[in-house]
Amino acid sequence: MDSTALIETENLTKIYSTGKVEVVALKDVSLSVSEGKFLGVTGPSGSGKSTLMNLLGGLDTPSSGKIKVEARPISELNKEELALYRRFQVGMIFQSFNIVSSYTALENVAFPLLFAGVPKKQREHRAKEVLEKVGLYPRRDHRPAELSGGEQQRVAIARALINRPKILLADEPTGNLDSQTSSQIVQTLAELNRNQGLTVIMISHEESLLRQFAHDVVHLRDGEVIEQENIR
């Protein structure tokens, strides 16, 4: 394994068992992602994209193989250690925005800091900072119903950044958005990658979007890597 990589997987495999039926969601996936890179992952439905993202995010554990982040074996952490990893090392955004409808944008972004024991004044200050980074500071007092889909996804991005993670995992973040807004959201991720040094891994059906912004694109099919392209 490459000791200089920020994220590495080695022969990563995930098998789901339902009764007597076994489904191989991911098979022998080996990847290496350097710090500060933007990696795109694409492939048809059922190719293992979301399974890979859940494993990298510590939401699921592999059946076999290894995941290392900063040379630390994430695939061997216990529940408490995984919770800390999810809280401080990775930020995750999804197709559904998962923001609280009764909270303002600022309150939604600040919310994860409650669990980290950060005082209220500091929570609000940091939330304002990240809303500024995603271009949503003027809308900080608006609730989700008063925001467009793209603005709601920016709230979700800001919330994922609030604990200052090194890695941002984006699982189909443009799936509920129109093409123009989709491009704006991926451009935001690319700017965070370029200006903040944030390592971004994004999965998408929209290969053209990934090719426009990512450094490398991995193609999955039936749980296996069939191609890895260097774009820029």
What is the top-level CATH class?
Answer: Alpha Beta
What's the end-to-end separation, in Å?
23 Å
Tell the overall outline.
globular
Query: What share of residues is helical?
Result: 25-40%
- Please state roughly what percent of the residues sit in beta strands, choosing from under 5%, 5-15%, 15-25%, 25-35%, 35-45% or over 45%: 25-35%
Order of helices and strands: EEEHEEHEHHHEHEHEE
Low-confidence stretches: none
Largest sheet: 6 strands, mixed
Strand order of the largest sheet: 6-7-8-3-9-10
- Mean of residue pLDDT values: 93
Architecture, CATH level 2?
A: 3-Layer(aba) Sandwich
What's the CATH topology label?
Rossmann fold
Number of domains: 1
CATH evolutionary superfamily:
P-loop containing nucleotide triphosphate hydrolases
How many DSSP H or I helices? 7
Structural class: alpha/beta
List keywords for this structure.
single chain; 232 residues; alpha/beta; Rossmann fold; six-stranded mixed sheet; four-stranded antiparallel sheet; 7 helices; 35% helix; 28% strand; globular
